[in-house]
Every structure is written in C-alpha cells, then in structure tokens.
Amino acid sequence: MKGSHLTESHQKSIKIYNENCMKTMGRMEDKSIDLIITDPPYGMKFRSNHRAKRYEGIHWDDNLDWVEDWSSESYRVLKDNTNMYVFCSFHNVDIFKQALQRDFAIKNILIWEKNNTSMGDLKGDYAPKYEMILFVSKGRRLLNGGRDPNIFKFARTGNKLHPTQKPVELISYLISKSSNKNDLIYDPFIGSGTTAEAAYTNERRCIGSEIDDAYYEVSLTRIEHLERQGTLFV
Description:
By secondary structure, the protein is an alpha/beta fold. The chain has helices at residues 8-11, 21-26, 67-77, 93-100, 168-178, 194-201, 213-229; strands spanning 14-17, 33-38, 78-88, 105-113, 130-138, 151-153, 184-187, 205-209. The chain is built from seven helices and eight strands; from the N terminus they run αβαβαβαβββαβαβα.
C-alpha cells in the first residue's frame, strides 16, 4: 500500500491510497463516511480503442465476484441517513442492483445523458448516449435544494486522463445534492481523481482508493495542480 504524497496541510482534507478499496475500507470505522460516489469497473473487460492512445485494461473489470462484499463494506462505513451514487452500464446493472439492495434502499436509477454518442455496433444497434447511476440510501436523507429530474445533461470529458473519466461538473452536482460543507466523501475507485477535485472545490473532505499505480499518480498530480492554483480548501 502507498498513501498519498500530498502536502501535510492537504492530507487533512485529501487522502488517496494506492491499494484495493477493500483494504482502505477495512481500516475505516463503522459509520464514518458521509457520502460515497464512485464509478466502479462494470465487469465488461472494457478497453478503449477510440482514442489514439489505447488504455490498458481496468483492474477488477474481468468479473463482478467482488460486488456483494464491496456493497456490504460500503454500507458499514456509511453513516446512517446517507446516500451512495454508483455509476453503471445496462450490461450488468442487474448484478449491481441485486447486490446493493441486500443492504441499501434503491431510490432511483439516474440517467447521465452525454452530449455525444459512444462507440459500439455502428450499423446494428442504437447509438449509446447515456450511462446509469444507481442512487441508493442507507436510511433516508433529504436532498439539498429540493427534488430535481432524474436525467442529467453534462458533456463528456474526452477521457484525457482515464478511459472512463466522468465530468467534474456532474460529480460536483451529486456532491451538492447529498452532502454538506466539510462532510467526508469516499470514492473506492477514484481513478484520475475526479471525485477528489469535485469534493474539494465544493469544500468537502475526501478519501479515495486507486489500485492502478499510473492512475493513482495521475490523481495526485491533479490535486497538486489545484493546490498550485490556490483553489483547494484545507
């Protein structure tokens, strides 16, 4: 395991671990997290060929045997009356849903509508333009700012830092709806650090886990860039 090499002041608000998320959660106390937002492996053996730069395969993406144990640990570390947002694809949404509903209440399946379509069967299928987000709760938490529609329109990122990179604006929106200033956000699959950036620009604390060495380093570089800009709260 490697912990983050951020400055001491930022380690008070950011902590990213280069390890399996189950190890990170294993050290957490019960009911210590205010919100989980994550984009886990979808169990599709995903490999992007769309960009000139081909990414390596994603850890844990060859099967979904881990989902039930991961869901149970997520439930344990979340405080009562909190939310979790889990990105997923239609391919295996049933597996995630069945695992999560053993512990959580499935509140909704939110839809992220992208500004353009993804690759796929170009002539034999409809062009995919959305991803699902399982919105689940441990107890009942009122949404900040009232009730919004369950379809969100945010532009894609271009995946410059990670093959499944999510927009900071989308993650920031979800954080604003289900947490408050100084709350502790956890992302078990933090990838290039989008959740960390969104959390800290919204004055939340954040813990992240990333098993891939390369993406772990990308996430630290990204946060250190925010530090140089002077936009990171501590």
